[in-house]
Amino acid sequence: MFPKFLILFIVVPVIELMLLIQVGARIGLPATLGIIILTAIIGTRLTKAQGAYNMQRAQAAMSEGRLPHEEVLDGMLIILAGVLLIIPGLLTDTLGCALMIPALRTGFRKRFGSSFNAGAQFSGTPASNKPAAKFDDDSVIEAEIIDD
To answer: Checking phi first, is residue 34 left (phi over 0); if not, alpha (psi -120 to 50) or beta?
Structure first.
């Protein structure tokens, strides 16, 4: 776990700085800053639009009586993409843009979903095989709260 945080908080910012310096040297400081600001603005709008669309997909899935597991994973990836687009940097912007493309996001979702399922451990019987819970009138206990 520690090496992942090391990469996240040290290596990625160093790569971002190197990319920003190289791009800034080639196209100039104002253009580089413009790209960073523009991707943040576009990122927030794309996140909002795709998030709303994904929410509609999730509601449609639930109204059809199926679990919206794909939509939930898509929603998580859309949020991640929005965060990556808001963070100043060219590497994070590239990853954020990739996650905003639905076809690429599907590939990420399948990979993320399979790695998530591989790490999950299930015990007991599946929910579909469990008998329905029955409640008798005798199982209700009436109580009264008394304040001291």
So the answer is: alpha
DSSP assignment of 105-129, as one string? HHHHHHHHHHHHHHH----SS-GGG
Q: Residue 43 CB: number of other CB atoms within 10 A?
A: 22
Question: With a threshold of 0.85, does the pTM exceed it?
Answer: no
When pLDDT is averaged across residues 89-98 and rounded to a whole number, the result is: 92
Residues 6+ apart with CB under 8 A from 32: 20, 23, 24
Residue 6 pLDDT grade (very low, low, confident, very high; cuts 50, 70, 90): confident
Which of 82, 61, 69, 49 lies closest to 112 in space, CA to CA?
69
Residues 6+ apart with CB under 8 A from 85: 39, 40, 42, 43, 44, 46, 47, 92, 93, 96, 97, 100
Query: Residues 15, 17, 18, 20: is their CA dihedral positive or negative?
Result: positive
Packing angle of the helix pair 90-100, 69-86 (nearest 10 deg)? 150
